[in-house]
TrEMBL record:
Coiled coil: none annotated. The lineage of its organism: Bacteria, Pseudomonadati, Bacteroidota, Flavobacteriia, Flavobacteriales. Gene3D superfamilies: Ribonuclease Z/Hydroxyacylglutathione hydrolase-like. This is MBL fold metallo-hydrolase. Transmembrane segments: none annotated. Residues 38-228 form the Metallo-beta-lactamase domain. It holds the Pfam family Lactamase_B_2.
Length: 258
């Protein structure tokens, strides 16, 4: 069934992005555009609505490249800088549209308030600063965005609780190391699953490639895409060739329809 969702991978890289500044690693020196990865984020669009999941340090460039003219909200997975550091660049949207809705766990809001205090200032706010409309995300409580029900999925990034989001047939999970059975039930039947696959070697807070493939086999979506990729995973072309059918590496600016 056509759900009318359009998903654009704005960034598919891990925290430093690819290439890493100053690195001479062959993947960082690759000329394949699919080996250039900005910090991880997706744009989820339907009808007139545009939502982004996370707002990392490459947000401005991602909005320009994809010519995003209107932003209906930012859903945060967690507070780490590679997912939040671009929030100041919501300013052009704020100037045109007013307060920009953000959706985040209360711990994430607390962290944003500390790091971007001027955005949340109530008195004597600097006139050029953006403002946001805070919506708290809680486990077990669905969100309604642009007439659609969105289900937060609680997953573990080592010991940190992180949210993924399910929009009907589309589920986006990043920075995952484990998912408990109860949360797993919330994503059964998803058609397209996006999940992190950092590298070949194990990592304390991310799925490596083997764990990501095992997770896909458990969820059994029609199609899966891997994201939050380190240069240590290898060249896009080679890794892509090694993957099972209907499992792909995402790459920046890839667009899928659900
Ligand atoms: Zn991350």
């Amino acid at each position: 069934m056509e759900e009318g969702l359009k998903v654009t991978f704005l960034g598919t890289g891990t925290s430093q992005g690819i290439p890493i500044i100053g690195s001479t690693h062959p993947v960082c020196l690759s000329n394949d555009p699919r080996d250039k990865r900005l910090r991880v984020s997706v744009l989820v669009s339907w009808g007139e609505f545009n939502f982004v999941i996370d707002c990392g340090p490459d947000f401005r460039q991602q909005m320009l490249t994809n010519q995003v003219r209107r932003l209906d909200g930012v859903l945060f997975t967690h507070e780490h800088s590679d997912h939040t550091a671009g929030i100041d660049d919501i300013r052009p949207f704020f100037f045109r549209q007013g307060d920009i809705p953000i959706y985040a766990h209360k711990r994430v809001v607390k962290s944003l308030k500390k790091r971007f205090d001027y955005i949340f200032e109530e008195k004597d706010k600097y006139p050029g600063a953006p403002s946001v409309d805070i919506n708290l995300v809680e486990t077990g409580k669905t969100l309604e965005l642009g007439g659609r029900i969105v289900t937060p999925i609680e997953v573990m990034h080592n010991r940190l609780k992180v949210f993924g989001y399910r929009f009907g047939g589309f589920t986006y999970l990043t920075d995952v190391k484990s998912v408990d059975e109860k949360e797993l039930e919330k994503i059964t039947g998803t058609k397209v699953l996006v999940v992190n696959a950092l590298r070949i070697e194990p990592h304390h807070s991310h799925f490596n490639l083997e764990e990501a493939i095992a997770f896909v086999n458990k969820v059994k979506p029609e199609k899966a895409y891997f994201t939050h990729i380190s240069h240590l995973l290898g060249f896009h072309e080679e890794v892509e060739r090694s993957l099972p059918n209907d499992v792909h590496l995402a790459y920046d600016n890839l667009t899928i329809q659900i």
